[in-house]
């Protein structure tokens, strides 16, 4: 039997895996180990391992701490995940935003 919650759970799991993949990639680029991340976040190495496998999600404050410690923006840390739905939002994609501003319908009175 399936429930309406399964797609949301799958989406959450996919997001966790993508975020953890980006964090792992940044750690590798900088030659950093899980122990460094555990100390930064104030958690045990087991908790970091779960986060890096995508089994436990990173929190927003944790991601901000990681980006800050790596001296990169949160968008850089998350990579293409940030704009996966619409990779070019300023090019007039389906976001309703063109040229960096929201296009609202005008009404005539």
Automatic annotation (TrEMBL):
Coiled coil: none annotated. InterPro entries: Cro/C1-type_HTH, Lambda_DNA-bd_dom_sf. GO terms for molecular function: DNA binding. It holds the Pfam family HTH_3. SUPFAM superfamilies: lambda repressor-like DNA-binding domains. This is XRE family transcriptional regulator. It comes from Brevibacterium aurantiacum.
């Amino acid at each position: 039997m399936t429930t309406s919650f399964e797609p949301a759970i799958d989406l959450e799991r996919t997001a966790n895996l993508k975020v953890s993949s980006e964090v792992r990639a940044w750690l590798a680029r900088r030659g950093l180990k899980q122990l460094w991340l555990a100390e930064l976040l104030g958690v045990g190495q087991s908790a970091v391992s779960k986060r890096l496998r995508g089994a436990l999600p990173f929190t927003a404050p944790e991601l901000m701490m990681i980006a800050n410690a790596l001296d990169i923006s949160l968008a850089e840390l998350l990579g293409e995940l940030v704009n996966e739905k619409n990779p070019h939002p300023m090019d007039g994609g389906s976001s309703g935003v063109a040229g960096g501003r929201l296009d609202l319908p005008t009404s005539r009175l």
